[in-house]
Amino acid sequence: MSQFFYLIPALTVLAGALVLMFMSMYEKFTVKNFIVISSFFLLIALGFSLSNINSSYSVQPFESLLNNVLTFDTFSNFFNILLIAGTLLTLLIGEHYFQHRSYFKGEFFSILLFALFGMMILAHANELVTAYIALEIASFSIYIMVGYNSDDSKRVEAIFKYLVLGSFIGAFYLLGVVLIYGATQSTNLANLSAFILTANSDQMILVYIGLTLILFTFLFKIAAFPFQSWVLDVYRGAPMVITAYMASTFKIAIFSFFLRMILSYIAPIIDFWDAIITIIIVLTLVFGTWLAITQQIIKRMLAASSIVHTGYVLLAFIALSYKDGQIINIDSAYATMFYLIAYLLSALGAFGLASHIISETNVKVTYDDFKGLAKQRPFLAAMMTIFLFSLAGIPSTIGFIGKLYVFTEAINAGYIGLTIVAIIATIVSVYYYFKLIAMMYFYSPQEACISEEFNDKRVSTYAIAFVAILTLLGGIGSAIVFFIPAMNIDEIIKLTQFAVQSLFIK
Amino acid sequence: MSSDILSFIIFLPAVVALGLMLTTRDVNTIRNIAFLTTTVILALVLKIYIEFVPSAGMQFVTNVPWIETYGISYYIGLDGFSLTILMMIAILIPTAYLLLWEGKTKGYWINMLLVQSGVTGTLFSLDIVLFYFFWEVMLLPVFLMIGSYGFGDKVFTTIKVTVYTMAGSLLMFIAILYLGVAHFKQFGEWSFAYDSLMQISTIPYDTKVWLFLAFLAAFAIKIPIFPLHTWIMETYKNAPTGAVFLLSSIMAKLGVYAIVRFMIPIFPEIYVEFSTWFVAIGLFGLVYFGIAALMQDDIKRMFAYSSASHLSFIAAGIFSLNAYGINGSLYLIIAHAIATGALFLLVGLMQEQTGFKTIKDLGGIAKKAPIFTFIFAVMLFANIGLPGTNGFVSELLIIFGIYEFNHTLGYIAALTVIIGATYMLWMFQRAILQNRPEGSVELKMRDLKVKEIIGLAPWVVLVFLMGFYPEIFMNKFEPTVTYYLNDILHIGAVK
């Protein structure tokens, strides 16, 4: 029974998805009902996950049933919390948007929870085929959600591009799995890990090729160069809320699996990819920056800047290294995870706020449409400013602390040149983020964009305000102003450390 | 715990600003509360000034862990250098309020308060990451002020000044992280406190030069030192008076202060080795900006160049490696802050009243506004360095210092001061004294109000007090300078 306890969060989400699916058969439920029901299930799942947050454990329950393909440990629990919280916040921030778009019906919420279920399983997976299935559950749900925007002619392009490219890269993954199976006669990562430690270099060729193919899938999903081309169009065509969800939460899910694989199973050979990843980081930063400067549409600018942020996360990722039977620079894994949290909050806030503003109308799309927002909605403009500061890495926001960690770890690992490239990308990012702030504060509003009966007092606004407060709290901490050690920034790092250490419980 | 007084000084304006942001009271109430806050701070600063012991080194220290994982702490304190600048800030800001009193909006005052928090935080920080934190944060309200209340092509100006200064700051950021990592590698624990970074001995020489330059990039842009000055002309011209005052009188000085606080202790040998270059660049900047100022017709631009010229002089003094030069520079920081601060505020007032921006449109101010002209003249003379004013004492000390450092450069320094006198007096003659030509438009100009005179009176007194009795002020920071020269640079104080 105690083993069953660990399964509860994932099962709750699954149950929620099924319940919502059945509910959607009836006409009488409104969108509001669906939001309430899904939030209810998410809260239960979040509650169960949070109850384990301070215990360090690692189990593979129900061996006969699950066949050791899922690991339940503090690490996966940590990611589950992030994923559930990300979904819940997306749902609450999107409340306004969902209610004013006729195409959001009951099934949508069911699909959202299925996507979350897939991501949660991905965080638990320690077997390559299971990971693939989990990844595809999540991906397919997201393909569908991308296509929901029936008002927008861009959606066909978005869904088609994403579906085709995503399936194509999925084939790479499967080929990689097959090659690894050819070498090791197993798809379980534990066996792969044992194989790597004993194999000679001839036997390793297939493993290297296979893992490189899997790495490509990873790079595609997190939108690193040269697999970034889908991002702009898909993010543009998807409903705004889904863009927020993809940029923040889905990225975290991808990282959860690959961090587990790299830290816990294939650590001895991670330095093999250093050269490739170095080039990829440079190109990701350069192309992302270039794309972001040239955009006129806010959504596309945020999408392009998410590519740049991928570059920053990879910078912490590359700082991981292996020497003499252990991972050195394990701190950079914490930095990666911290940065993911920072990006989750700021991206969710920025995209979410943009969706909140356009809920009732379709204007406020380009830079120009944001003119004068500070005079119409000072609080929303202030919150947008906080999120943009955080994305740009200005001190007093969590984005700054995230960058501090990532850059410190990169320098600590000796990647000074890369860090300088990243700093230059940051300098340029100040330009495109501050341009939006300038639009909001220094111009008077355009006639076409003024909406009088905009209702500020609703769930979306409070959810965004909550995220904004978290963003500031994560950047300042409580020690500096209130001298309370309890809610400090260190606590987040300790959680990440705790989570990573559970990977090494044997 | 008496050391909490510094935290109080840092955060009081920010807390008040946040409170004011949420209220819906009218702008006058908000301004009055903001003004009251600055006077409370002035009182606290005076208390500190009295309690301060010149020979005791770092005082009022608070050291609380902030981000323990990386050894970053909320580490603040005060020594002779920071006390001097703190006094300057605390006195200048309330006066600025009095001169900016009318016709401002709610956001203007809130931003002024936030800036004050930022600058005092920067001033007290002894942990370099904390310093970076405040250094960046203090820029943001100015960004909003220029964009919201500026003139001309204000948005372009705002973006330009932000990206420019952020570029410098981020280069410094990388150097800061590198130092932290170097400390970790050498001692096995993280720390970003300036006194532990001083202990690092493993950084190779070449890297140190790069780090030094990265730090300098941030500070040289803020000061600005030639050739990183290109942002100031537009900014000073397009920015509202309050923002210009903050940038020129206060933030530029913090750039100089930061060189003394962080760069000298952390890179003493590089500082000594490159000093000739920087004295030369400083003097070149003095001449270059001086000549540029001569040729300006827009009065704010002229002051922008004049300010840059003086700051180059200050920078030259800082790099002169002896007690005369550094004392003189610190003294000039205050003298210049008072003089330039007053002049920018007065020019702002003049522009608001007359609506003219250029020197050739002005003229005949002296007849219409005698008190204005008197105070303008006093500040102008202090700026030029006429004997009896504080500017004289400081410029003399710097020239001594540079002479001591290198005779040739000393002669050059002495000669260049003439340029400053030329453009200032010429401008004064044309814009203020000279009668308006026959048939020109009627000049609208009022004299100073009582409130403004009260605000400026302490400055006028200070100009002469500091000019006649420099010891009272020097004694507070001289021990710190001596400590720097003897114990950090190991070159001995020239006495």
Helix/strand layout:
The complex is a heterodimer of chains A (about 500) and B (about 500).
Chain A: H1 2-23, H2 31-51, E1 58-59, H3 63-66, E2 72-73, H4 74-93, H5 95-99, H6 106-124, H7 128-146, H8 154-184, H9 189-198, H10 201-221, H11 229-237, H12 240-265, H13 274-294, H14 298-318, E3 321-323, E4 326-328, H15 331-357, H16 373-376, H17 378-392, H18 398-412, H19 416-442, H20 459-476, H21 479-482, H22 489-501
Antiparallel strand pairs in A: 1-2, 3-4
Helix pairs in contact in A: 1-2, 1-6, 2-4, 2-6, 4-6, 4-12, 4-15, 4-22, 6-7, 6-12, 7-8, 7-12, 8-10, 8-11, 11-12, 11-14, 12-15, 13-14, 13-19, 14-15, 14-18, 14-19, 15-17, 15-18, 15-20, 15-22, 17-19, 17-20, 18-19, 18-20
Chain B: H1 4-22, H2 27-51, E1 59-67, E2 72-78, H3 80-100, H4 106-124, H5 128-137, H6 139-149, H7 154-187, H8 194-197, H9 205-222, H10 232-238, H11 241-266, H12 268-294, H13 299-318, H14 323-354, H15 365-368, H16 370-384, H17 390-405, H18 407-433, H19 450-468, H20 470-488
Antiparallel strand pairs in B: 1-2
Task: Describe the structure in your own words.
The complex is a heterodimer of chains A (506) and B (495). Chain A is an all-alpha fold. Chain A has one domain (2-504). Chain A is 74% helix and 2% strand. Chain A has helices at 2-23, 31-51, 63-66, 74-93, 95-99, 106-124, 128-146, 154-184, 189-198, 201-221, 229-237, 240-265, 274-294, 298-318, 331-357, 373-376, 378-392, 398-412, 416-442, 459-476, 479-482, 489-501, and strands at 58-59, 72-73, 321-323, 326-328. In chain A, strands 1-2 form a two-stranded antiparallel ribbon. A two-stranded antiparallel ribbon of chain A has the order 3-4. In chain A, helix 11 (229-237) packs antiparallel against helix 12 and helix 11 packs across helix 14. The longest helix of chain A is centred in the middle third of the chain and has 31 residues, at 154-184. Chain A is globular, with a radius of gyration of 22 Å. With 495 residues, chain B is mostly helical. Chain B has a domain at 267-495. In chain B, 75% of the residues lie in helices and 3% in strands. Chain B is built from 20 helices and two strands. Chain B has a two-stranded antiparallel ribbon with strand order 1-2. In chain B, helix 5 (128-137) packs antiparallel against helix 7 (154-187). The radius of gyration of chain B is 22 Å and the shape is globular. Chains A and B meet through helix 18, helix 19, helix 21 and helix 22 of A and strand 1, helix 5, helix 6 and helix 7 of B.
